[in-house]
Design a protein that fits this description.
The complex is a heterodimer. By secondary structure, chain A is an alpha/beta fold. Chain A contains nine helices and six strands; from the N terminus they run E-H-E-H-E-H-E-H-H-E-H-H-H-E-H. Chain A is globular and about 55 Å long. In chain B, helix 1 crosses helix 8, helix 2 (58-69) packs antiparallel against helix 3 (75-99) and helix 4 packs across helix 7 (176-197). The radius of gyration of chain B is 18 Å and the shape is globular. The chains are: A alpha/beta, B alpha/beta.
Chain lengths: 248, 242
């Protein structure tokens, strides 16, 4: 596995797992809420499959094992920042070992819709110690590449304040919310209402992502222009990773 | 809702007015018996005592139980879930009594995770970092006994060893009692490393109950020398004893 900088793991790793069994590649797409990651990933999957690659995708959704605990916790429990961070770490570990690693062992290209960096940003804006949370996720596999779909807050607003999704959330999902509680960082009480909180929360998240982009050498893809522009840049980046691999 | 708190780290003494006493040791080491006796003595001496056990919070208990039953847990998820559970208990059950100036007695603490999870295969430095947010105990006692003694004590109380207690999921042996010995032997090795690394007070768990308890009370007294109960906790009253 040709991970970046020859690193197999992000940190201390999984001592009980033999990483030489990994044949596939892990490609990570990061970016804030509403940037259009899932649409791009669906397109990339088709593109790669047409090229003859086996593709598996994985999201930052919840694993069956932990989802109930997370729901219970969110449903009213007072969550401490450590508990919050660890619940997501457990959830990710479950997905890594039961979904991502088996697919990589079988030689698939795994496209991850969000990865540990999302967890870092969310935990750090909630007050976690960055060093601690980085080490907590030390068992994660180092991806072959991290593409960061970057937009500014001004591009994010029109995508999130959108009548279709907000109407659906309010009426059909009967959540009683137009904007999403967690996307708006409402637990942090940053603003008067969902909108103010959303702006402040997403600004903090974007700041973390921009700092991580430098630190963890993300491939930054400007996603403020159009779907096509972003798509072209992603394909170019992924293509060069696959070529490089076949050449070596 | 997420609550913020600037918390102390595990490597430095905690700033709370209360005191934290923890006991560690393998199953059947006699640590719980000793802690209960210490509890009675402290209450009888007029201290406000708060008792807490490892792995008892509601938040992830059900998940751990379900995972164990279906053998779904990997060493990493097993480890993180216990840390999550501990983080929740720390906030709800350990820090409040410490802030209120009580004496908190914990049956098992983070060292249980350090030994057990490493035996299950996680990285020693990784699991130590996982618990970096824990409160450092004021008195940490490790009850050391040979495997044979603990096995005898456990089997005296009941007929069968529990699946996870015997480490059967590790596939060391098909025989529960054989598996228990192999598993607990590795745990003992880890405890030995830990007790040096964290300077735990080692108690000879093969000595008589009375002798051990005398020692415990002596050490607790020393530790409490500079302890001043909060004025609102000084009124002696009948507190329930577990």
């Amino acid at each position: 596995m040709s991970a970046r900088k020859g690193k197999i793991y992000f940190g201390t790793g999984l001592p009980y797992f033999d990483a030489s069994e990994i044949k596939g590649k892990l490609i990570v797409i990061e970016g804030t809420d509403g940037v259009g990651r899932s649409t791009q990933i669906e397109n990339l999957r088709q593109w790669l499959e047409i090229k003859g690659y086996g593709v598996a995708t994985t999201g930052w959704t919840r694993s069956p094992l932990i989802s109930k605990a997370i729901d219970d916790a969110k449903a009213g429990h007072t969550l401490n920042v450590n508990t919050f961070s660890l619940l997501y770490a457990a959830d990710f570990a479950d997905r890594l070992e039961n979904e991502i690693i088996p697919a990589l062992k079988a030689g698939f290209i795994v496209i991850a819709d969000r990865y540990i960096y999302t967890a870092f940003a969310r935990s750090i804006v909630r007050g976690a110690d960055p060093k601690w949370i980085h080490k907590v996720f030390g068992f994660a596999l180092e991806p072959a590449a991290v593409f960061y779909m970057k937009i500014g807050i001004e591009d994010l607003i029109p995508r999130v304040i959108n009548s279709q999704t907000m109407t659906k959330r309010y009426w059909e999902e009967q959540s009683g919310e137009g904007m999403d509680y967690w996307e708006s960082g409402m637990d942090l009480r940053l603003g008067e209402d969902f909108y103010d909180s959303f702006i402040k929360y997403q600004r903090l998240i974007l700041r973390e992502f921009n700092a991580m982009a430098r630190r963890f050498k993300f491939i930054v893809v400007d996603s403020s222009i159009s779907f096509e522009e972003t798509n072209k840049a992603l394909k170019l980046g992924i293509g060069s990773i696959l070529e490089h691999d076949e050449a070596s | 809702m997420i609550t913020h708190s600037r918390r102390p780290t595990f490597s430095e003494p905690h700033p709370y007015p209360g005191r934290l006493i923890i006991v560690e040791g393998i199953d059947g080491s006699g640590k719980s018996t000793q802690l209960q006796l210490l509890n009675k003595w402290l209450v009888n001496s007029g201290y406000r005592v708060f008792f807490t056990e490892w792995n008892s919070s509601a938040l992830v208990k059900e998940t751990i139980r379900r995972g164990k039953k279906r053998n779904l847990l990997t060493p990493t998820t097993f480890s993180i879930l216990h840390a999550t559970d501990f983080a929740d208990r720390l906030v709800h059950l350990i820090v409040p009594p410490l802030k209120a100036g009580m004496i908190v007695l914990a049956d098992r603490y983070v060292y249980t995770a350090f030994s057990r999870d490493v035996v299950r295969g996680v990285h020693p430095a990784w699991v130590r970092n996982l618990y970096e947010f824990a409160v450092k105990p004021d008195l940490a006692l490790y009850f050391k006994v040979p495997i044979e003694v603990s096995l005898k004590r456990i089997l005296n109380g009941r007929i069968n060893l529990k699946f996870h207690e015997a480490g059967m999921d590790l596939g060391l042996s098909d025989n529960p009692s054989e598996s228990f010995k192999l598993f607990q032997n590795r745990i003992l090795e880890e405890y030995d490393k830990i007790s040096k690394e964290y300077d735990l007070t080692v108690i000879d768990g093969t000595a008589t109950i009375h002798r051990q308890q005398e020692l415990l009370r002596k050490m607790t007294k020393e530790m409490l020398q500079d302890f001043r109960p909060m004025p609102y906790l000084q009124k002696k009253e009948n507190i329930y004893v577990r």
